[in-house]
């Protein structure tokens, strides 16, 4: 597993925990000792980036995740989408295909049988429409 893959997984763990606790991911991040964050810099960048842009990210999920309300969507899928959408829209150094591939891989490993294809579809729509988003 690559260093960035490990960092995404660690960021996912904290975002997922924050989602379940209805708390701030950045607050949880601050409570962690520095050595607790494997691949700390990229994990931290993902957590802070998702937190900073969460309103827009969630708006995009609601808009393009057809047939799913945010509340009905599995929390793991919701947070995988948040990380990937952040990377696609605000991390120009990450290729869109890599962000999607990593999201599908995490969903395959951690979520339901249908999650990988569903996440792939949502992210595909985000990529196609990316040039039209006002960020």
TrEMBL record:
Entry GO terms, CC: cytosol
Signal peptide: none
Alphabetized GO MF terms: RNA binding
Pfam name, any one: NusB
Sequence ranges assigned to domain NusB/RsmB/TIM44 in this UniProt record: 6-126
Keywords carried by this UniProt record: RNA-binding, Transcription, Transcription antitermination, Transcription regulation
GO biological process: DNA-templated transcription termination; transcription antitermination
Keyword RNA-binding carried by entry: yes
UniProt key word Transcription: yes
Family the entry assigns: Belongs to the NusB family.
Protein's name in the database: Unannotated protein
Organism: freshwater metagenome
